[in-house]
Amino acid sequence: MGDQTAAISTDQVAHVARLARIELTSAEIDHYTGHLGRVLDHARELEGLDLGDVPPLAHPYPLQNVFRDDVAGPPSDRDEVLNQAPAASDGQFEVPPVLGGEA
User: pLDDT tens digit string along 29-57?
Assistant: First the structure.
């Protein structure tokens, strides 16, 4: 990484903070401007790497399927399940309204 940081200004950092509705002090804006500049410099270095011989990967680590077989089993007892719910009545779960209305 070079000594020069990427061209990002304190005004740009302040603008992004306003868009994200994050209140920053002038000292925080200066602090984050330096950090973001270094992040952008590193991203620029990565863009310059020759990856022509590197095969595309879906994931950097070898993964195995961790799913179990979908085998039907005996159903859970309804009353036992409803007894574990935060709220239930008349054999059904009670949930807050989603699309308006009153509870």
Answer: 999 999 999 999 999 999 999 999 988 88
Q: What is the DSSP letter of 7?
A: S
Closest CA to 42 of 83, 80, 5, 7: 5
Which pair of structure tokens corresponds to residue 37? Answer: 């500049």
Residue type at 48? G
Q: Rounded to the nearest 5 degrees, what angle is found at the Cα of 93, between the Cα atoms of 88 and 99?
A: 120
Q: What is the DSSP string of 34-80?
A: HHHHHHHHHHHHHHTS--TTSPP-S-SS-----PPP----PPPPHHH
CA dist., res. 17 & res. 13, Å (int): 6
Three-state secondary structure readout of 75-97: CCCHHHHHHCCCCEECCEECCCC
Distance, CA of 45 to CA of 42 (rounded, Å)? 5
pTM of this structure: 0.47
